[in-house]
Amino acid sequence: ERRLTYAVYMLIGEAEHWWRGTHHTLTARGVVVDWECFRRMFLEKYFPERVRHAKEAEFMRLHQGGMTVSEYAMRFEHLARFYSQGIAEAWKCRKFAEGLKYELKRVVVPMAITEFPALVEKAKVVERLEGGNRVVKTAEGPAECYVVWQVYQIV
Q: PANTHER family from the xrefs (predicted)?
């Protein structure tokens, strides 16, 4: 029950006052106050079900859009916490890869990476190379071949 002790220690202001009152009420009723009890009460108070459902829906709709891979990964990880079904690592990777911009997805998806940190790193490398590719495309000849070779090396 270290998590409970640590979480309560971290509460400040309104949340601290709320928990003191809630803890007193629960113990007076004979409720065993453990981590799961605290977690349930905290989420009910500060993350109502409608908010959790909205975040879960946002997660399911999430695509990279105008974000960098790093920004997309941070947003993805943040929203994934609200997904109620539990996330297997392989599914998480497929969901993330499918949400990438097309020019990144076409390189990353065939790699079939099933470890999330490795997938994010590969996507960052491809993003960096694709960024360079846009500049090089105006040039002709060997420079363009070099960029294609760089992308090939990732695969």
A: DNA DAMAGE-INDUCIBLE PROTEIN 1-LIKE, RETROTRANSPOSON GAG DOMAIN-CONTAINING PROTEIN
